[in-house]
Amino acid sequence: MLKRKPIIALLCIAIILISFSYPVQAEGLSTSIGVDMSKPVIGDELTIVISDNRALSIKNYDFLLTYDAALFQYVSGSANNLAPDKVLFGADKISDNQIQVTALLDPKSESSKLMSLKFKALNAGDGSFRASSINVSGEYPSPVSRTVTVTKPISKSSDNTLKSLTISPGTLSPAFSPDKLNYSVSVGADVSRLTVSASAADSKASVSGGGQVSLQSGQNTIKLVVTAENGEKKTYTIVATRAVISPTPKPTPTTGPTPTTGPTPTPEPSPTPEPSPTPEPTPTPPVTVDLPDGPYQITDVPEGTSIPAGFYRSLSEIDGQMVPSYKSLHGDLTLYYLYRQSSDDGFYYYDSQSERYQPYMVLSVPAQSFTVLSPGNEDIIPEGWTLSSMTIDGKTMPVWKKDGQEDPTTYLVYLMDSRGQQAFFQYDTASQLLIPYVAQEGIQPEPTPTETEADITPIPVVPNPEQPNPWQLATAVLGLACIILTSLLIVQAVRKNGRFNRRHYKNGHLPPPPPIKRI
Q1: Can you tell me the distance from the alpha carbon of 152 to that of 43, in angstroms, rounded to the nearest whole number?
Q2: Distance between CA atoms of 429 and 363, rounded to whole angstroms?
Q3: Is 417 exposed, middle or buried (0-12, 13-18, 19+ CB in 10 A)?
Q4: Separation between Cα atoms, residue 490 and residue 288, nearest integer Å
Q5: Which are the contacts of 319, defined by CB distance < 8 A and separation ≥ 6?
Q6: Angle 470-506/4-21 helices, nearest 10 degrees?
């Protein structure tokens, strides 16, 4: 029995270590939901911010956000307010009222903010937002909720009419009426100023224009703009005509008698020249660019076509003419819409290295999308890779394959992320994973079941605290077994000690008396 004690003790220690190895909810870390407006009005867009109670180096996070779909409509999600640089981010709407948020980060500093989500208020009432199944770099804060009250908009007056309109000197023609907008007045040449007085019919409306107005000789246009409480405007116009001062004529000098001459012949009338027709303006031809399959026109985006996410409309100069363009919010990339009534119509960008327009392509992986580009002159193609091509969604994109591989599954691609940063990535066509290319020789990151970057911990599977978990059940069973084994050891030791004492009492041996201390 003594030989079995170390084995049983080791078994108990192993059970205790296993029970403590399972992740539990963090006591020190908590999550909160902030809202940028306390009482939004129907139609407003509000932003909720998910934050932690303390700053930490965030490697990854994910959570499930549940909201009241009857009161709020999801618009977009963003992690741009994070202090660390994000590598992958996604906010996917998995049901009518639930959004699954996942992010993989490259922490360079500590931050307490996780992300922000935009919603539009649809109806009045009290609605709630709840974040659950939260995992922040291996810590599991408790679920958190926030209630937001949406109110109805306060009706505002649309009255933008005048109650009175007077001038001095002079009289308006026609007489003032709130529904008449155009008036006229004539004053003498000696009137250099006109006083215009106006008041709005609604006390909450405002009037701009009028007062002391200087007059020039001839016509003067005076405009009064009435703005209603709800912002609607109405313009009243007065055309004031100031008489022109005629110059005093000089006296005509007296001349002697005019000698009598013969009759002056009547001149023949000159033919009236016919008016020349006004030439029509020559339309400016659209800017065209040459592609391998022919010329394309640079036009605006057709109706029904959306501008790519992360780009805004602008104007750029090409061949001395301004054309519509679409510039990236973050990177140095400009798109143009090329048109020739063909299936290849769409967005293109100008590649300065090849001096050609290349089609705009997006390579999407779970949780993020990347823009496909060609490397610039300053970018060095890694050794051991040969230029090739790959077709995705009917479009051909440049890729590089490893030397010596005839039919590879991993290619090298040059991409730009949502922050505008450009770099080489390894693209695994089998698993559709993107891995940042490591330039050092002999160091190639291995693909994992989830998207990852060098030195980034993969996002662990997050347990749902609201559902039974088999690991928790197993931990409880092992802990109970440890308690039972410890109790058996104690009982066994007590029994053995009792048998030892009884055996000595039967043989006539008594235990020695306790030693007596002398004071």
Answers
A1: 9
A2: 11
A3: buried
A4: 93
A5: 287
A6: 160
Question: Residue for token digits 């932003």?
Answer: 47
Is 152 within 8 Å of 44 (Cβ atoms)? no
Are the C-beta atoms of 347 and 337 separated by less than 8 Å? yes
**Cα separation of 47 and 118, whole Å?**
5
| Identity at 369, one-letter amino acid code | S
From first to last of the 519 residues of the chain, give the pLDDT tens digit: 445 556 666 666 655 555 444 444 445 788 899 898 878 999 999 998 988 888 777 888 889 999 999 999 999 877 654 544 556 778 889 999 999 988 887 776 677 788 888 999 999 999 999 999 998 888 899 999 999 999 988 888 999 999 999 999 999 999 999 999 999 999 999 999 999 999 999 999 999 988 999 999 999 999 999 999 999 999 999 999 999 876 666 666 665 566 555 566 666 666 666 666 666 656 677 888 888 888 998 988 888 888 988 888 888 888 888 889 999 887 778 999 998 878 889 999 888 777 888 888 888 776 678 888 888 777 788 888 888 888 877 778 888 888 888 778 888 888 888 777 888 888 888 777 888 887 654 444 444 444 444 343 333 434 444 445 556 677 788 888 889 988 888 888 777 766 655 555 555 555 566 666 565
In whole angstroms, what is the distance from residue 389 CA to residue 400 CA? 7
Q: How far apart are CA 177 and CA 427, in angstroms?
A: 74
Q: Among candidates 368, 361, 357, which has minimal Cα distance to 390? A: 361
265 vs 41: CA distance, rounded Å: 90
Q: Which two tokens stand for residue 209?
A: 């224009």
Residues 6 or more apart whose Cβ sits within 8 Å of residue 452: 104, 435, 445, 458
